[in-house]
Write a sequence for this structure.
């Protein structure tokens, strides 16, 4: 299976030849206006929109990619093309003297049934994975309480910030950006589009996981210290990409 880095200035129609899309992190257009907002006006994003809504192609948006998917109206996607949620600036934490940017390791709980999205085929409900975050505008929020209830009923809340034991708590040390309902990742109703603020690519190899954060993966990392082959082994973040790979290969 081949993959490609598709540049923003390429002909948008060429995107239709691809079977799936991954919109990575970064700072598109310097996060002007709102993170991801200007990028959605690009022809390539419009093409992705058409391909995932009309042909059901998979699309994973990470960090800035998640912001793009929200601003494009693909997430939560109850009315495709309509912006229904925001990824607002992180709530500052005066006790820790943190401004708006969060860069740290956290824990995520898979809050949806296994297979609710094509990206979580290998993640059972309740599975906890260590993962890093690095963003200034990552707070999933909405002013519409009915929307939140709909997302819960649809099981579109895929990932929630939790502690090492899987307990979901709004406390700042667990939910560092103040996201509503501890939301870290949402899918569209069909499950072929996933937007998540944490970075699974930075938790794909065992060597990437700190051994001091606690939990089974951290302990495995500590045991592997000095074993180069073991450190190159998989970490839980890779399961998300592996599921997408398997879907595209099928």
């Amino acid at each position: 299976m081949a993959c490609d880095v598709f540049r923003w200035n390429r002909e948008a129609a060429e995107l239709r030849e691809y079977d799936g899309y991954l919109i990575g992190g970064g700072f598109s257009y310097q996060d002007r206006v709102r993170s991801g907002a200007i990028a959605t006006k690009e022809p390539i994003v419009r093409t992705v929109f058409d391909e995932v809504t009309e042909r059901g192609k998979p699309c994973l948006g990470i960090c800035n990619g998640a912001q793009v998917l929200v601003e494009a109206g693909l997430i939560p996607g109850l009315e495709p093309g309509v912006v229904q949620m925001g990824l607002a600036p992180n709530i500052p934490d005066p006790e820790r003297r943190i401004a708006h940017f969060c860069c740290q390791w956290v824990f995520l709980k898979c809050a949806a049934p296994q297979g609710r999205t094509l990206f979580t085929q290998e993640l059972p409900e309740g599975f906890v994975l260590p993962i890093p975050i690095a963003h200034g505008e990552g707070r999933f929020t909405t002013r519409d309480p009915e929307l939140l209830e709909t997302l819960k009923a649809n099981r579109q809340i895929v990932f929630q910030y939790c502690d090492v034991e899987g307990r979901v708590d709004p406390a700042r040390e667990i939910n560092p950006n103040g996201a509503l309902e501890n939301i870290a990742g949402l899918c569209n109703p069909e499950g072929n589009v996933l937007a998540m603020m944490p970075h699974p690519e930075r938790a794909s190899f065992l060597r990437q996981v700190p051994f001091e954060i606690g939990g089974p993966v951290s302990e495995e990392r500590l045991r592997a210290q000095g074993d180069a082959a073991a450190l190159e082994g998989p970490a839980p973040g890779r399961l998300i990409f592996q599921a997408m790979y398997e879907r595209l290969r099928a």
Q: What stands out?
A: The chain has a mean pLDDT of 94. DSSP finds six helices and nine strands in the chain.
